[in-house]
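Predict the 3D structure for this chain.
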Amino acid sequence: MSYQFLHHSPLGDLVVTLAGGCITCCRWQVLETVAAGCPSAGAVVAGGVAELSAVCAEPSAADIALEEKVHRQFDEYFSRRRTEFSLPVRFEGTPFRCRVWELLREIPCGQTVSYRTLAERAGNVRAVRAVAQACHFNPVAVIVPCHRVIGADGSLTGYAAGLDRKRNLLELEGALPGSIL
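Done. Predicted structure below.
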């Protein structure tokens, strides 16, 4: 059984799904939540906006404790007092995608890498498109920072929740000039 809640951030609401003491999904509460292939997000589209749906009737004490930790760490992150998350995450995907998602967690806040560099780190320099697909289907946005992956020429490319949000996250982290918060 899973449990869902919303986290309100300066860049929009995040739908977070917990199961078995881990975060299994974290998506921006927009149409992409449904379209990005994260069925555990439990979001439904109503009037063009994804809305949170009840996944379980009552959260356990462990769910409530983890939810509080998630809120605290997100609040610290968005107020620039946290640069990395220490939250339990469980991935469900192909071995290659899981490897890419783990590598994403190793990219330091305020830094970016290219899709090609990430493919090299994953052990297959020719897997640039597969890395891009893994980033696109990253089930745990922000905490697993696929927004830190950019084009080989330094351009902002591909982000399931939109390039504006990617740019805002990178500005927040100091990886791009300017500031939004």
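The two ends are 36 Å apart (CA to CA).
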